[in-house]
Amino acid sequence: QVQPVESGGGSVQTGGSLRLSCAASGHSFGPYSMAWFRQGSGKEREFVAAVSMSGGYSVYADSVQGRFTITRDNAKKMVWLQMNSLEPEDTAVYYCAADFRGLSVKLRMSETYDYWGQGTQVTVSS
Predict the structure, then answer these.
(1) Closest CA to 95 of 53, 44, 45, 30
(2) CA distance 101 to 112
(3) Pairwise CA distance, residues 48 & 94, whole Å
(4) d(CA 126, CA 124)
């Protein structure tokens, strides 16, 4: 029962890169799946990327496919989101999510995750 903590947000120009980090420690076992969601100003929260417990399977939103990469380290209970070729449309608050229940395989669904970070701002200007 520990809130994930994100870091690495900031401001970049179009085409730039950022790497977000998230720590989800505090439990003896897990997490299972981990994911990143984002929410732009005045918009609903949307799925960005998720990775399975083993790290062997990952899924991405169509809007970031080929530009973003999600990775994890189970020993550190951390997950990263490498963001390349950033666009103004990527501007949003990015949230790290962790599943410590292991009850769902729906990695794209927010309901799968029971622990959420407070978010980190990413701003991309043209």
Answers:
(1) 45
(2) 8
(3) 9
(4) 7
Tokens of 16: 């730039």
Three-class secondary structure of residue 90 per DSSP: helix
Local structure of residue 74 (DSSP, 8 states) = T
18 and 125 in contact (C-beta within 8 Å)?
no
Tell me the three state secondary structure of residue 89: helix
pLDDT tens digits for range 78-104: 999 999 999 999 999 999 999 999 999
What phi-psi label fits residue 105: left (phi over 0), alpha (psi between -120 and 50 degrees) or beta? alpha
Retrieve residue 31's tokens. 């997490």
Residues in the chain: 126
Q: What is the pLDDT of residues 13-49, one digit of tens each?
A: 999 999 999 998 777 778 999 999 999 999 999 999 9
